[in-house]
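Long-time lurker. I teach an intro course on protein structure, and each term I like to show students one example going from raw sequence to a predicted 3D structure in token notation. This year I'd like something fresh instead of my usual example. Would anyone be willing to generate the tokens for the chain below so I can use it in lecture? Attribution to the forum is fine with me.
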Amino acid sequence: MNVHTDPLVDDYLRRLQAAASPLPAHRREELVSEIRDHVQEALRRAPADDTAAVRNALERLGSPEEVAAAAIDAPPSDQRRINTLAIASVAAAVLWFAGLGAVLALVFGYRARRQIRNAPDAETGSGLAVAGIALGWIGVAIVVAGVILIALHPNKH
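-- Reply from a regular --
Happy to contribute to a lecture. Here you go:
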């Protein structure tokens, strides 16, 4: 709801929208909405035609370009960190721990995939997670095959 509609505020928000264009659309809209709400709250007690109060509120925020630059905080793709659970998944699968590692590899791998999917700009390691999952399932298959072999050929001593 636009409680305070002022040409200066409208212009500020248009400039902010343009300056924040590198952000994903949902984040850009969220930023503009947050700033709009902040300005409206700051001007709630000011008379509708108080240009000085509007200018003062906008100056305290900084320029739209500065606000947008501060909001564009996603690290470049080459600085994304590798998901720790993806690494743990592969390590557990390789170390195997008599079958327990295979189960841990599956748990860690699936959780890592979900985390990476939810934060694609911050984390990487999807390939490691998939490798951990694949090795985990192979480990489970080896354990199941071993149990079946033992059941079919009991030790005769």
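Some talking points for your students: The first helix runs from residue 7 to 19. Residues 78-152 form one domain.
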